[in-house]
Amino acid sequence: MKIIRADVIVTCPGRNFVTLKVETDEGIHGIGDATLNGRELAVASYLKDHVCPLLIGRDASRIEDTWQFLYKGAYWRRGPVTMTAIAAVDMALWDILGKAANMPLYKLLGGASREGVMVYGHATGRDIPEALDRYAEHIEEGYKAIRIQCGVPDMRSVYGVSKGEGMYEPATKGSVEEQSWSSEKYLDFVPKLFEAVRDKFGFDTHLLHDVHHRLTPIEAARLGKSVEPYRLFWMEDPTPAENQAGFRLIREHTVTPIAVGEVFNSIWDCKQLIEEQLIDYIRATLTHAGGITHLKRIADFASLYQVRTGCHGPSDLSPVCMGAALHFDLWVPNFGVQEYMGFPDEALDVFPHAWSFDRGMMHPGEAPGHGVDIDEKLAAKYPYDPAYLPVARLEDGTLWNW
Ligand code: CS2
Ligand code: MG
């Protein structure tokens, strides 16, 4: 089965998405997500100008060889743009293979390891009462795992909280928003947030929180220790993870579980974290970490050290990634949890999908391949709209980790 076409579709149904469509001489096509929030066109060009021409004529069923060809053949290995482009090709080829075999992707990977995929939703509020209201709504919907993020008193802005009624979207159209941050105010406040959740709702739901790279290792150790009574399912991205050894300091002081990896794009970014068991969940995603082929490797390596998966799943990864991730999650033996923020309605219209949600559990469906497609006519109605992720500054103006 030969590849005869490979096209990049950039669309903005509620927010920007980049999709690769690969077509074969047997009339089967597959699609992959190539979305990199705030740098979408870099990946679109990497695919359109450098990768797609090399795909024409290749055997679509040689997924591993294509992965190795694109990874080693670029010479300039790794990085978010390269690995997102490779991921899109990989996802599309696995989609094609599933359609050719008339099998849902999870069966190609080795079948279901569980009945359904536990997902976590986002409860956010500008203050504790509002965050608790959102948390209660998620319990009502049947979520078993809920992430909570909240405004911090005396802090002008904060990570992860919707600005208005709509969905939380971090990217700002046409400009870079400057947000303010104070680790001291955050560290004094956030244990009160978790105490309020546990006082009101008890311990029946998994409580997650995203620190979003904001603390130093010793501050992260202090946070983890201070919130142990509230039994978090995980504290996420407690400190920037370029310095993987820095997590030893956190580990020495606290048993609060740690999740890291949404910004990782290869196994090398997390090798030390996993083999030294410095983390409990690996957050790498299909779209940013080289697709199914590479994330399988990362998950298998993690399983040797009892590290479980906790794939990143924000609304700024497309429904294509969500669909493929649910297949991966249903199969992967060392599954932990899957993030699911939901999507704008117009995005769900552009990307018809086979997945289902029922009381905090999701299933990818039985459609051959990953079960997600793209309505190209509808996608064309939503032109790209440049948007940028914010930056954070400390209260003295120092540029910090957003
Ligand atoms: C966040 C993301 O969902 C998460 O865990 O870290 O929303 C992240 O901020 C965005 O994906 C950045 O585009
Ligand atoms: Mg995160």
From TrEMBL:
InterPro entries: D-mannonate_dehydratase-like, DgoD-like, Enolase-like_C_sf, Enolase-like_N, Enolase_C-like, Mandel_Rmase/mucon_lact_enz_CS, Mandelate_racemase_C, Mandelate_racemase_N_dom
GO molecular function, one term: mannonate dehydratase activity
PROSITE patterns (alphabetical): MR_MLE_1, MR_MLE_2
Gene3D superfamilies xref list: Enolase-like C-terminal domain (3.20.20.120), Enolase-like, N-terminal domain (3.30.390.10)
Start and end residues of each Mandelate racemase/muconate lactonizing enzyme C-terminal domain: 129-257
Top-rank taxon: Bacteria
One of the GO BP terms on file: carbohydrate catabolic process
PANTHER family linked to this entry: D-GALACTONATE DEHYDRATASE-RELATED, STARVATION-SENSING PROTEIN RSPA
Protein name, as recorded: Mandelate racemase/muconate lactonizing protein
Organism: Caballeronia catudaia
